[in-house]
Write a structure and sequence with these properties.
Blueprint: H1 3-25, H2 30-51, H3 63-77, H4 90-113, H5 118-139, H6 152-168, H7 174-194
């Protein structure tokens, strides 16, 4: 089975669950929960495909939306929202990290295929990875979490830069992509457990 397909599924599951939990905690109704979950899991890919001027992958294949619906059904049945600190559980952090890296790689590779310059590759990779979560947060009137916390969005930028450099020096292949994936996942997990954050500029 294609490793990137598996990573894509893991990412969709983690992002859908993240959207579900945030929606419930912000007291959204059932429609709001559906929208927040779908946006978080699939919004980045839809934005990516629109930029690439192609029919969104989610609108052509059934498994992305079906995966989100299954996640929502199971989350409701097992009352996941009542469990404390689900987002900090090891399985969730690892799943979310795999999804982040997988989506970043997908965005960057499609940008390279479309012959985007380095800025286009970085932006498309970033939007694919975190665009859904950013859209969700804006929808519920929150400052997007990726802009104020954690070492999250930085991973997408780093993945895009490394893939661009690998392509520029003609080293872009399955092995280099796999190595970049492993490095990005390891760095994200290390940053998470070490509590690394980007510096902020204070006004005081």
């Amino acid at each position: 089975m294609d490793l990137f397909f598996v990573a894509d599924i893991i990412g969709i599951i983690a992002f859908a669950l993240s959207g579900y939990l945030i929606a419930v905690r912000n007291h959204l109704d059932l429609l709001g929960i559906l929208i927040a979950s779908f946006l978080t899991a699939l919004g980045g890919g839809i934005v990516r495909d629109v930029i690439l001027n192609t029919t969104p992958f989610t609108f052509k294949e059934y498994y992305p939306a079906t995966t989100v619906l299954i996640v929502l059904f199971l989350a409701f049945i097992f009352k996941i929202y009542k469990k404390k600190d689900v987002e900090r559980k090891l399985f969730f952090v690892i799943s979310d990290t795999i999804g982040l890296v997988a989506f970043s790689i997908t965005g960057a590779l499609l940008a390279l295929e479309a012959e985007f310059n380095i800025f286009g590759v970085i932006i498309l990779s970033f939007l694919t990875a975190v665009g859904g979560g950013v859209t969700r947060d804006i929808l519920i009137n929150k400052v997007p979490a990726v802009l104020v916390s954690d070492f999250y969005g930085s991973i997408a930028l780093l993945v895009a830069l490394l893939l661009f450099l690998a392509d520029f020096f003609n080293y872009l292949n399955e092995i280099s992509i796999l190595l970049i994936s492993i490095f990005a996942i390891a760095l994200r997990l290390l940053a998470y457990f070490k509590g690394w954050r980007l510096p902020k500029i204070g006004l005081d």
